Amino acid sequence: MSNCVFCNIVAGKIPSAKVHEDEWTLAFMDIGEVNPGHVLVAVKPHVENIYGLDDRQAAAVLQTAARVARAVKTVYSPGGLNLYQANGPAAGQTVYHFHLHIVPRHENDGMRLTWPAKNPPREQLEANAARLRAVLD
Ligand code: AMP
Ligand code: ZN
Question: Which of 1, 84, 87, 103 shows the smallest number of beta carbons within 10 Å?
Answer without folding.
Answer: 1
